Amino acid sequence: MFDIELIREFEREETPFYYYDLDLLKRTLKSIDLEATKYNFHVHYALKANFNDRLLRLIQENGLGADCVSGNEVLKALEMGFDADKIVFAGVGKSDKEINIALENNIFSFNVESIQELEVINELAAEKNKVARVALRINPNVDAQTHHYITTGLDENKFGIKSWELEDCINTLKKLSSVKLIGIHFHVGSQITDLNVFKSLCVKVNELNNWFEERGHYLQVLNVGGGLGVDYHNPDENDIPDFESYFKTFDQFLERKLNQEVHFELGRAVVAQSGSLISRVLYVKKGIKKNFIILDAGMTELMRPALYQAYHKVQQLSNSDESSETFNYDVVGPICESSDCFAKEVSLREAKRGDLIAIRSAGAYGEVMSSGYNLRNEIRYVYSGERN
Ligand code: LLP
C-alpha cells in the first residue's frame, strides 16, 4: 500500500493526517458492483462509516445508494449527488426536524424503529399531504457475535421493533393513511466475520416475510442492513472484503417472493481498508517494565481502540531495515487519558523520534468519530489514486 514515493510525500506533510487510497476504494466498489449485480441486489452505503466528500463522490459515482442516520446525513447525501430515491433513513431517535427534511426531499424510505415513530411520521407526512414510504426495522434477536458495543439485533438492544410488537404495529398501520409499508429492515451488528450470522438472519427474515404475507401484506423490500467485517490483522492480504461469499450467502438463504428487492447497507466493508491514520513518533520512552512510543495522533483522531479495544495494525513506514533490533512497545497517543493507546506490547523495529507510523484499516469509523478533546487540531488529509 505504501511505496517509497508515497512515503516521501508523507515526509513532507504535517502529521497526523488521514491517508485515503482512492484506487483501493475504486477497486472495492467494482467488486461490490460485480458481486451484487449477479443477484440484482441494491446496495446503500452507510454514511456514518465515513462522510468525507472525496470518498462519498466516488461511492455515489459507482451507483450506490445512501443509508443515513440523521437529517444532516440525508442532506449530505443529496449534496453529494445521491438520488433521493436511493436514500434510506434509519435511527432510533429521529427528530421532527429530521423527519421533515427527509419528507421534503422524498427519500426512498424511512427505516422505522418504533410504533410511536410510525405515528409521528404519519402526522408530519399528513401535514405536507405526502405519503411516506416506511420499512419496519425489526429486531430479530440474532447474535452478531461481535463486540457488545456494536451488537444491535438482540432483545436487550434499543434498536428496532420487537417481534411481539408486530401485531400491534400492523393494527396501527391500518389506521395511518400517510405512511405506506414497503418493507422490513434488519441490522444485527457490525464487524461480523462469520457468515453463519447472516445465514441465521436470513432464516429470521424468511419467517417474518411469510408472517407478513399471511396477513395480506406484500413487501417490496427486504433490507438486511450492513455488518460485513474486514480483516484488521491482514489489511494488505485482504484489502478487499469477500463480497462474493457475502452476497452469495443471501442469495442462497433468503427466500425472495415475486419481484421482491433485497437491499443492503454496507459501511465498514466499503471504506475501512482504504484509510490509514499517518502519524509521527514524538518521543520514545524506554522503561524497565514497558517501552512506549508516543505518537502525535491519539484517541482524538481514532477512537476505536480506546472505545472498543479494537485492533488496528501498526505499521512502521520509516525504519525498513529488517535487521534492526526489535522491541515490545505500547503505542500511545498524546491525550491525557490512559485509554489513549493504539496497541499494547507490539513487537516493532527500534523506533526513533520523527519516524512515520501508519495505523491501518482506519477508513471506517475513524475520521467521523474524531473529537476536539484537548483542543486538538482539525483533521488533515492526503489522498492517492486521484490527484487534485
Ligand atoms: N445500517 C445500520 C442500521 C447501522 O446501524 C449500521 C452501523 C450500518 C448499517 C453499517 O454497518 P457496517 O456495514 O459498517 O457494519 N463505530 C463502530 C461501528 C458502529 C456501527 C453502527 N451501525 C465501530 O467503530 O466499530
What's a concise summary of this model?
This protein is α/β, with parallel strands linked by helices and about 400 residues long.
| Most strands sheet | 8 strands, mixed
- The total number of structural domains is 2
* Tally of separate helices: 11
Oligomer: single chain
- SS-derived structural category: alpha/beta
> What is the H/E string?
HEHEHEHEHEHEEHEHEHEHEEHEEEEE
CATH architectural label of the largest domain: Alpha-Beta Barrel
Rounded average pLDDT: 94
| Envelope shape | elongated
**And the CATH topology of the largest domain?**
TIM Barrel
The set of bound ligands, ions and cofactors reads: ligand LLP
Gap from first CA to last CA:
20 Å
The CATH superfamily of the largest domain appears as Alanine racemase
Q: What percentage of the residues does DSSP assign to strands (E)?
A: 15-25%
Mind telling me the C-alpha Rg? 22 Å
Number of strands: 17
The percent range for helix content is 25-40%
CATH class of the largest domain: Alpha Beta
List low-confidence stretches: none
Family: Belongs to the Orn/Lys/Arg decarboxylase class-II family. LysA subfamily.
Catalytic activity: meso-2,6-diaminopimelate + H(+) = L-lysine + CO2
Domain Orn/DAP/Arg decarboxylase 2 C-terminal: 18-363
Modified residues (N6-(pyridoxal phosphate)lysine): 48
Strand and helix map with partners:
Blueprint: H1 4-11, E1 17-21, H2 22-37, E2 42-46, H3 53-61, E3 65-68, H4 71-79, E4 87-89, H5 96-104, E5 109-112, H6 115-127, E6 132-139, E7 161-162, H7 166-175, E8 179-185, H8 195-214, E9 221-223, H9 243-253, E10 261-266, H10 268-271, E11 275-286, E12 291-295, H11 304-308, E13 314-316, E14 326-332, E15 341-349, E16 356-359, E17 381-384
Parallel strand pairs: 1-17, 2-3, 2-10, 3-4, 4-5, 5-6, 6-7, 6-8, 8-9, 9-10, 12-14
Antiparallel strand pairs: 1-11, 11-12, 11-16, 13-16, 14-15
Helix pairs in contact: 2-9, 4-5, 5-6, 8-9
Bound molecules: ligand LLP.
GO molecular function: diaminopimelate decarboxylase activity
InterPro entries: Ala_racemase/Decarboxylase_C (IPR009006), DAP_deCOOHase_LysA (IPR002986), De-COase2_C (IPR022643), De-COase2_CS (IPR022657), De-COase2_N (IPR022644), De-COase2_pyr-phos_BS (IPR022653), Orn/DAP/Arg_de-COase (IPR000183), PLP-binding_barrel (IPR029066)
Catalytic activity: meso-2,6-diaminopimelate + H(+) = L-lysine + CO2
